[in-house]
Amino acid sequence: MSYLERSLLPNEHIVRRGRLPQSDWLGLVLPAVVALWFPALWLIVALIVLGTFIRRWTIEIANQRLIYKHGWIARKTEEVDLRRIAEINLEQGPMGRIFGFGKVLCRGVGNGGIKLPPIDNPMDFRRALQEAQVKLASAQ
Known about the structure:
Blueprint: H1 3-6, H2 29-37, H3 42-58, E1 60-62, E2 65-70, E3 76-81, E4 85-91, H4 94-99, E5 101-108, E6 114-115, E7 119-120, H5 122-139
Antiparallel strand pairs: 1-2, 2-3, 4-5, 5-6, 5-7
């Protein structure tokens, strides 16, 4: 059971999970190529690959609350109630537009907000957040 599933409140459910983009693996190409010529760097490249796997396995984003959790040994979480989100912004550069990834920034009322790491399909994630906000508002 994931952190997100364990932290759900009664009558709360997962609306959407964010995923790190597949382009995360592109950052491993150069170190791997360099390590082919310098076997002494194999350990460093192995640690970089392990770090990328850990990032992919340990980030969860979703919910009636926006919950961003990351870390494996040490855990850090950021949460904001969807009713307290004032604006949802999207950052997507040229490469993000081509490969379908980007960052979502949620600014809350009374707090600094949450800046998510690059995720796949940020437009869909933003739309899911906005739809969840509308459902919460209409339920009141």
